[in-house]
Automatic annotation (TrEMBL):
Any matching Pfam family: X8
A GO BP annotation: carbohydrate metabolic process
Single Gene Ontology MF annotation: glucan endo-1,3-beta-D-glucosidase activity
Annotated GO CC locations: plasma membrane; side of membrane
SMART domains in the cross-refs: X8
Gene from which the chain derives: LOC110779985
InterPro entries: GH, Glyco_hydro_17, Glyco_hydro_17_plant, X8
N-terminal signal peptide: 1-23
UniProt name for this protein: Glucan endo-1,3-beta-glucosidase
Sequence ranges assigned to domain X8 in this UniProt record: 365-449
Length: 451
């Protein structure tokens, strides 16, 4: 969904990606459809000094940017635009492309991935689609000829590659492209140990009655009847849809990476879900979920290199929501913080950005289960909170909050942790009417409630 206008109605329900690498990163897309962005060197300095982001994805291979990120420790994903993909099927052209665009900057600039094309299926250009894997192979070969083995070649896909998901386990690639395109592509990924890259956007195609599911808020979950697995967020739901499609072709061992995902923080009146609260919830909980390393129901413990969309708000994008995907404004002030800003002691000086709404009152408050809440509902709260990657070890066997071993006690601990991690806003203790905010500290003995 990057540099083109999406006909949303045409998109199926989702998209996404993953990787089993233990050193997965959270990075950000550096989209530049704007006329007010800071120079690349300032961006590189800002990212290294003020944020914990360790990778940046480009929509081009701009030499100024490659130069700016030299010796920063931040890795890059560079992109070969769709218009240049077909000519690079030629091996001499690919060698020349590598010689011009990569060799002068490698290895002082760390290049993690070369993305060949962008959402080629979404383009609808059959000749482009038919040549993409060939071009990837040609670039990969050109890298090997130059003795470069640490740069992987991939291509990002919108989730339009899957028909609308009836359930995660039913995920499959569009007929006609499954064996012809995705089989050879996944074979290439397996052989070269590169990830299959997807762009899952719960923002596109979520069910309006299930917004909580889309933005990682408390919800009743969605059951996949075929597997018996329950999903509490749409990101996992989409990722497992992709995984199922890969598995159907016999490639469930191939890593998945997320090329783009995000949520707009503002929209016009026709885009009511594009709000600051929703963007904070989606991106903030996504970061926690990814950092937890839990993976998804079908991919336990798998981690995914993930690029949030986007670094900056982009003022030349067409719609209000498209202009407002950024974590930062062009002056480097934060639109909101999702846990990617260094604390002042880590950074050089205080983050200059005013950060989004945080609770103003300093009185200590906790969130606990209401007396009249049923165990059934509380179990749901417990499952949900722990599925987000919030630390539930204290309530597990051997932890200081395991006793009393009751659903009510464990749920209260988890609900309080959720409430605090989300900034103690009253609605984060709502839990469908089963939570209540209290100013009396529920901690006991060695069991310390998050405060
Ligand atoms: C690549 O490495 C091989 C073996 O070390 C060497 O013979 C060859 O000249 C190198 N090629 C390039 C382009 O550096
Ligand atoms: C949206 O979710 C509701 C509640 O689960 C369900 O009844 C409805 O069929 C869903 N709509 C679509 C389009 O999936
Ligand atoms: C995932 O990790 C946990 C904790 O290390 C471990 O107990 C569990 O067996 C792992 N599950 C799988 C499927 O690898």
């Amino acid at each position: 969904m990057t540099n083109h206008i999406l006909p949303f109605h045409f998109l199926p329900f989702f998209s996404l990606l993953l990787s089993t690498a233990t050193s997965s990163f959270i990075g950000v897309n550096f989209g530049r459809v704007a006329d007010n962005l800071p120079p690349p060197s300032a961006v590189a300095h800002f990212l290294t000094s003020q944020t914990t982001l360790t990778s940046v994805k480009l929509f081009d291979c701009d030499p100024q940017i490659l130069q700016a990120f030299a010796n920063t420790g931040i890795s890059l994903t560079v992109n070969i635009p769709n218009a240049n993909v077909i000519p690079l099927t030629d091996s001499a052209a690919a060698q020349s492309w590598v010689a011009t665009n990569i060799l002068p900057y490698h290895p002082q600039t760390i290049i993690r991935y070369i993305a060949v094309g962008n959402e080629v299926h979404f383009s609808g250009d059959k000749t482009l689609i038919a040549n993409t894997v060939k071009s990837m192979k040609s670039i990969h070969q050109a890298l090997l000829s130059a003795n470069i083995t640490d740069i992987k070649v991939t291509t990002p896909h919108s989730l339009a590659i899957l028909p609308p998901l009836m359930s995660p386990s039913s995920g499959h690639f569009q007929k006609g492209y499954d064996h012809v395109f995705f089989g050879p592509l996944l074979e290439f990924h397996r052989r070269t140990k590169s990830p299959f890259m997807v762009n899952p956007y719960p923002y596109f195609g979520f069910n309006a009655s299930m917004i909580e599911f889309a933005i990682f808020k408390k919800n009743d979950g969605v059951l996949d009847k075929a597997t018996g697995l329950k999903y509490y967020n749409m990101f996992d739901y989409l990722m497992d849809g992709v995984y199922s499609a890969m598995k159907r072709l016999g490639y469930d061992d191939v890593d998945i990476a997320v090329g783009e995902t995000g949520w707009p923080s503002a929209g016009d009146p026709t885009e009511p879900a594009a709000t600051l609260d929703n963007a904070i919830s989606y991106n903030g909980n996504l970061v926690k979920h990814l950092n937890s390393g839990k993976g998804t129901p079908l991919m336990p413990n798998r981690t995914f290199d993930t690029y949030i969309f986007a670094l900056f708000n982009e003022n030349l994008k067409p719609s209000t929501s498209e202009k407002n995907y950024g974590l930062f404004r062009p002056d480097f002030s934060a639109v909101y913080d999702v846990g990617v800003l260094k604390s002042p002691s880590q950074g050089k000086g205080p983050a200059k950005a005013p950060v989004a709404p945080s609770p103003s009152d300093s009185d200590q408050k906790w969130c606990v289960a209401k007396a009249e809440a049923t165990d059934d509902k509380l179990q749901g709260n417990l499952d949900y909170v722990c599925s987000l990657g919030i630390d539930c070890k204290p309530i597990q066997d051997g932890g200081p909050c395991f006793d009393p071993n009751t659903v009510r006690s464990h749920a209260s601990y988890a609900m309080n942790a959720y409430y605090h991690i989300n900034g103690q806003q009253d609605y984060d203790c709502y839990f469908d009417g089963t939570g209540v905010v209290t100013d009396s500290n529920p901690s006991y003995e060695a069991c310390e409630y998050v405060a």
